[in-house]
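In the previous chapter we treated chains in isolation. Here, by contrast, the input contains two separate entities that must be folded as one system, with a combined length of 560 residues.
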Amino acid sequence: MNSIIEINNLKKIYSNGKHALNGININIEKGKFFGLLGPNGAGKTTTIGILTGLVNLTSGKIKVNGLDTIKDYKQTRKMIGLSPQEINLDVFFNIRELLIFQGGYYGLSIKESKKRVDKILFDLGLEEKAYSKARELSGGMKRRVQIAKALIHDPEIIILDEPTAGVDIELRHLLWDSLKEMNEKHDKTLLLTTHYIEEAENLCDEVAIIDDGKIIAQGSPKDLIANDGESQINITVDNWDSSLLPNFNSSFQDNIVTIKSKNSDKDTPHIINKITDANISITKLDIRKANLEDVFIKLTGKKLSDD
Amino acid sequence: MINKSFYTLVYREVWRFLVLYKQTIMPGIITAALYMVIFGEALGSRIKLENNIDYIIFIIPGLTMMSVIGQSFANSSSSIMQAKYLKFIDDYLIAPVSGFELSMSFIIGAILRGVINGILIILTCALFTSFTIEHYFLSLFFLIVVSCAFGAIGVIVGIVSKTWDSVGVWGTFVFMPLSMLGGVFWSIDMLPESWAYIALMNPLYWMINGLRYSMLGISEISITFSIIISLLFAIIFTILASIMFSKGYKIKS
């Protein structure tokens, strides 16, 4: 396995005594789109804070491309671009100047930086705002500038901390397309933290579910759902015989039969046949496919997000 | 070797205060000019000094040093506070630079602002009276070393302060009184003996005396000690500021 990020037994205890990370282990392969999924306060931001140098670790080790993030921090930081969750734009300069400086922080010359800035401003649809100051931009534009800052030095690894938090649906989908392109066309490794199920399912090749500072499951979204998710088949009927589906976990309330199924595609025709054979009329059929939220609920007994 | 990352950090710091010259350069010059008019021209003629030097000339090094101290401290402390307040300090903390390089970028910005202010104040004072600088390089040495010391103190205060108020407290309640009590407007022989001993405990007195000697060739105390104390301040606080950045004290969780 060609790991680009190796996190081993990472622990973080904050000065107030809070155990933010309780010995997490994560391996991310080069070129993967990796998602760190968990509710607020689970330890996602702490993990990437330690990875990038914003947070001091308590114990454990992180390697990026085989290099230690503490001993070899100058090399590892050059390989990483971070788009933090909170907007943090320098107000003294316009967007173009700000990005030129950002390139300079990572060792680009002014000339190289200017060339990269013009390309990134174009790619992210920011050319018209190049000479605006951060305070003149909308929330969505500011978010794009945040991502531009992470890309300016063309890093191998792009870390995005809740990149679509608080942005509208249209921009969210636009950002998803840009992120997919970076991963697929430009072969970047992406590490995304999110508490949006749809985002993790749509974008990530692999997901680690984190809760209370522990990784509770890791795998492709499809595998995680297949292992721990259950679809819900809701069938509205005119009457019900509770002995009809002995092999299924089902309940009946307000003329709706709710059946839990690991494989709804296979089970639904079989269930419908059973019901119709018993001369029960079906007036409505609704199938809610299992998703990562169900996996999270099953593993932790709580919901992933309040949204 | 100076790397591009460090060069960019310094460049940003210098550009920031040059762009904001109305807030960073002009006030020091105007204040010094007002002191010259009021204390030098209006009151100075009534004050006699033992070494027969004109009072208006005597106060020039003190006024210069007072401004250098204030401006270099304000540059680094406000730059760090702003970066903390708007959270773009994270951009510096994740950049591939050491804690020493980070603190030095702020300190060099502060040195340049302090030295530019100092030179412009000396030039402004030259409009009011005529004087000759005795030791050019030593004068520049004191401007640089004292700016470095207070730039480094500004870094430390910027890092530990939680609010703008707590930064302001240092200027108002610490540096301004120490400058005033550091011999800006008086010679030690004007003071009662007990006050003269207290003045000697004030490090700013030694710094101001150092610049006064290098500019005017007069010294009330040992110039060697002035050099040593100024250098010690610059070195100790620069090391302290660099350690704080390296450890992430109060700026990393």
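Residues 55-85 of chain B form the longest helix (31 residues). Chain B has one domain: 4-247. Compare these points with the single-chain example from earlier in the chapter.
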